[in-house]
Design brief:
- The structure is a homodimer.
- Helices cover about 85% and strands about 0% of the residues of chain A.
- Chain A has eight helices and no strands.
């Protein structure tokens, strides 16, 4: 969502410095939102699907190895217990107990040997929808002022105000959730947005002059 | 990098349907690349820093708990061994051995109780640079044809050709690295780009007419 706010915001800011028609900014902004929401949403969906496929194929392989290369799997399980600091006697005993239940053993190898968590099958679809939708909502915030004013620079003023406030609020709540200092987190998110917009504005001005 | 190719590509495609000057497309594209590379690069850098801070603060807490809430930590360690299927005797013995070395114990808790890997301190900077740089390189690919032609639609034709080829090549190698079927992976990446560009083109046309 921060990207969904920041990139269209910066694009509109950049164009505000270079063109004198708000309609071009609106069209470019809408095109960017459509592109970004599809690229990020669909990209997220397919990445989730790939993760799921990867998990399933690794799981099949572990089952195969447990059945056909039992000796090697036992060595690998022992190695895990050695790596966390158990002595050889406990390595052997713990491995023996785990190897008694094939399903539990495969689950253990997936999680602790390969470091793979079982992906939630519904997550790919849900996260795609969330990413796409937040990109659209986020993108409309910085763009909306341009619908109502005539001169791009006026739109830019409102857009800067509205977007920085939204980035601050968004950064605040995101930091709360991830357990970071909210004020510092909010300022960081806001600063990234401001820098991206300033860079876009500067670069567009430069190219307009060229 | 795929996003770095896709979003500027789609933006340029969208504008090609709506404006009749390549210079506006070039300016918008450059602004988008500047905005995206800063937002993604800086965003990636700060996300990496946050991860590092989070890791360090959790580590300090584990050390505190090992020193002052030893009984609780022992329970938690036993619970881990219970969860992977060891019986009570082995749970107790394994926990006893792990608890002998405080550093190893904390390392164990970080990794297997909390599921946190120690972040590489240099990674945040490196990955920020990589993300930013690939966004710039990726963005210049779909934009470059517009530098050399007069009419946006001509630029669009070359841009579609060049970008889809690049997306295919990129998708191919990315799939090779992640162990997915390369042809299918390449087609997927290409398809996302094509759909995003088509949507941006359609939406921009719609708004131009309005």
């Amino acid at each position: 969502m921060a990207d969904g706010l920041t990139v269209p915001f910066a694009l509109a800011a950049g164009l505000s410095g270079a063109v004198d028609s708000t309609s071009i900014i609106v069209i470019a902004g809408i095109a960017e939102i459509a592109a970004g929401s599809i690229a990020m949403g669909l990209g997220g969906y397919l990445a989730g699907k790939t993760e799921q496929d990867h998990y399933n194929s690794e799981k099949r392989r572990e089952y195969y190895e447990v059945d056909h290369l039992r000796h090697r799997e036992i060595e690998e399980t022992k190695e895990f217990f050695a790596s966390i600091g158990l002595d050889e006697e406990l390595q052997a005993k713990a491995t023996e107990q785990i190897a008694q239940d094939k399903d539990k053993w495969v689950q253990f190898m997936m999680k602790y040997e390969l470091g793979l968590e079982e992906p939630d099958p519904k997550r790919a679809r849900k996260s795609a929808f969330n990413i796409g939708a937040s990109y659209i909502v986020g993108g409309l915030v910085p763009l909306s002022p341009y619908f109502f004013v005539e001169h791009p620079i006026d739109g830019l003023k409102y857009s800067v105000a509205v977007t920085l406030i939204c980035l601050f609020i968004f950064g605040w709540f995101k930091s709360k959730v991830t357990g970071v200092n909210p004020l510092w987190g909010a300022l960081k998110v806001m600063l990234i947005g401001a820098m991206a917009a300033a860079a876009a504005f500067g670069v567009a001005k430069l190219f307009e002059g060229a």
